[in-house]
Q: What sequence folds into this?
């Protein structure tokens, strides 16, 4: 039995009207004459459409059964208020719906008026956005999953045979625009909606586009963008190039899955979605994993619970739990543009990120690497490669190979887990960083000539200077005699 809302409510959908207007620019002409002047007046045509929401109607059932079915169908809503206190009203050109509860529904008419003085073609559509009107996020996607939404009789939610696909953006084909056009919109939170849809918000952005009638639109077809709610068929969905695959609650991807290029694997937030990976391979380019908790198993030898070799892979907004060895292993080639880690926390592993090959311009941004051994380790690097670590916390041992063009730490915290050590073998720059444990040490490894630069950094609240760095931070044993240390612009003689 699905649960109904009880005491909590949520902010519902916000339908915003966006208008796209094209203007056909005019011109002035000059013509040659022999004896007389000729004036030619030219007036440019205007392509102009307007859109407004009218015919607003609210509905709430008088009574719902415990299973969410309607017991009494009589409308218990008023003109602007749902049965349980939610509202729907026009506000500054937008239809604003608040505090919907299961069973509530609002219908409206989007009226498009043609104010052009030339013949025009038009199309219309909608796009799912986050509650603040930006690109849709996990909350918006979850709420959209729960809503019944209809756009002018078109199926706004395109359901496949396995019930997986949901349309999040839609545009009609171009057609001749009459004097006016009415588009019916329905937004309903069904009576069976469960508690996971509480306290969420989204925006449905509507757009009307008009162009002069003689524009060739033969190659512009109806556009539909869908995401797949993976369900039990996650492996099948991952095998579709460019697909967006949504993990709604929990699912598993193992090393038999083929993840095609351009696939986005997204959850509905770390608290709502768990993805289990088992020695899973990402070998295609432009793959993104985001907005979920990931639990990894199957790490052995040089392999991680997740193995990345594809170009331009991104891990974003993820809580990643390893299995005690390598959480994420990265091994990429000469043509790889880099790997991006953003807003991600990695725990429960001896090695958080193991770069068996660093390439391109890789980034660790706003991450927490809190592991038993290496926060990240780089075993080899492609010539010219860089790694930027910014606004991140690294607790443990951090070390990386020679041959990297530059490793940058910007506004980072480096502290103690089982280890508290930074040992570069390549060009390194630390700016506005904080060493947070009393025993943390820095050592220059290898024999290559490179520079370690420290600017405006502290250790346990004490500013690191050229005068105190040796006693405050350095492990001078086996210090690379060819490495140069520069603190706040001053070269420090370590040996």
A:
């Amino acid at each position: 039995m699905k649960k109904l809302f009880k005491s909590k409510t949520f902010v519902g959908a916000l339908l915003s009207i966006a208008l796209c207007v094209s203007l056909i620019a005019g011109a002035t002409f000059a013509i040659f004459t022999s004896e007389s002047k000729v004036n030619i007046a030219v007036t440019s045509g205007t392509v102009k459409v307007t859109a407004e929401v009218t015919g607003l109607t609210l509905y709430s059932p008088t009574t719902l059964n415990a299973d969410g079915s309607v017991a009494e169908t009589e409308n218990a809503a008023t003109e602007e208020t749902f049965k349980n206190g939610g509202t729907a009203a026009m506000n500054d050109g937008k239809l604003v719906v608040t505090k919907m509860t299961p069973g509530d529904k609002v219908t409206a008419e989007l009226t498009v008026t043609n104010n052009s003085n030339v013949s025009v073609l038009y199309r219309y559509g909608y796009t799912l956005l986050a509650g603040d009107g930006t690109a849709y996020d996990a909350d918006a996607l979850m709420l959209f999953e729960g809503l019944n939404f209809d756009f002018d009789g078109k199926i706004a939610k395109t359901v496949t045979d396995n019930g997986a696909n949901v349309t999040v953006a839609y545009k009609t084909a171009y057609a001749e625009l009459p004097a006016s056009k009415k588009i019916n919109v329905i937004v309903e939170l069904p009576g069976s909606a469960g508690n996971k849809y509480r306290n969420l918000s989204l925006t449905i952005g509507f757009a009307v586009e008009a162009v002069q009638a003689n524009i060739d639109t033969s190659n512009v077809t109806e556009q539909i963008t869908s995401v797949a709610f993976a369900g039990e068929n996650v492996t099948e969905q991952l095998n579709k190039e460019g697909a967006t695959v949504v993990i709604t609650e929990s699912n598993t991807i193992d090393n038999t899955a083929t993840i095609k290029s351009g696939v986005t694997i997204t959850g509905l937030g770390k608290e709502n979605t768990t993805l289990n990976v088992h020695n899973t391979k990402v070998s295609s380019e432009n793959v993104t994993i985001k907005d979920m908790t990931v639990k990894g198993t199957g790490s052995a030898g040089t392999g991680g619970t997740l193995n990345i070799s594809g170009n331009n892979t991104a891990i974003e907004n993820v809580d990643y739990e390893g299995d005690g060895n390598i959480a994420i292993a990265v091994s990429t080639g000469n043509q790889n543009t880099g790997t991006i880690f953003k807003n991600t926390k990695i725990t429960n592993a001896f090695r958080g990120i193991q770069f068996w090959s660093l390439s391109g311009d890789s980034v660790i941004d706003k991450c927490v690497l809190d592991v038993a051994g290496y926060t990240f380790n780089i075993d080899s690097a492609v010539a010219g490669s860089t790694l930027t670590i910014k606004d991140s916390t690294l607790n443990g041992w951090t070390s990386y190979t020679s041959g990297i063009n530059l490793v940058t730490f910007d506004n980072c915290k480096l502290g103690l887990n089982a280890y508290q050590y930074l040992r570069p073998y390549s060009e390194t720059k630390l700016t506005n960083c904080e060493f947070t444990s009393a025993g943390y040490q820095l050592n220059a490894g290898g024999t290559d000539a490179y520079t370690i630069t420290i600017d405006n950094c502290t250790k346990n609240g004490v500013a690191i200077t050229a005068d105190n760095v040796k006693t405050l931070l350095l492990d001078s044993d086996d210090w690379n005699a060819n490495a140069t240390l520069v603190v706040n612009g001053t070269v420090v003689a370590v040996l």
Q: What stands out?
A: Confidence is low (pLDDT under 50) at residues 1-37. The chain has two domains: 13-28+42-225, 298-492.
